[in-house]
Amino acid sequence: MTWQDAALRRALLWTFERFAEGAAHFSKQLWETETMLADRVPIWEEELRQEGEARALLRQLRERFGEVPDSVGTRLKSGTREQLEVWTVRLLHSSSLDDLFGAEAASQQ
Hints:
The protein is mainly α. It has helices at residues 3-65, 70-78, 81-91, 97-108.
């Protein structure tokens, strides 16, 4: 083996080692990102589902009572899934926004 062959072999070996280190680092980052996304996706799905329920309830409120105050939209957006379900059922029997939110608002004071 000539000195040029030996130098080329060392250079190729050095390049391969650096590539392997980079690939291992990239693989670890990819795995961490995939794990993070797997943890976050169910949370995002729940948040989107809750936002959709709040929007649907807001549309129903507008259809039933006309324009509603911005505070109602804010309240719906910050409501829990359980609250949204209660309000959706309560809407069937409410004749006003006070009927819908009244008992809850009184208990929070």
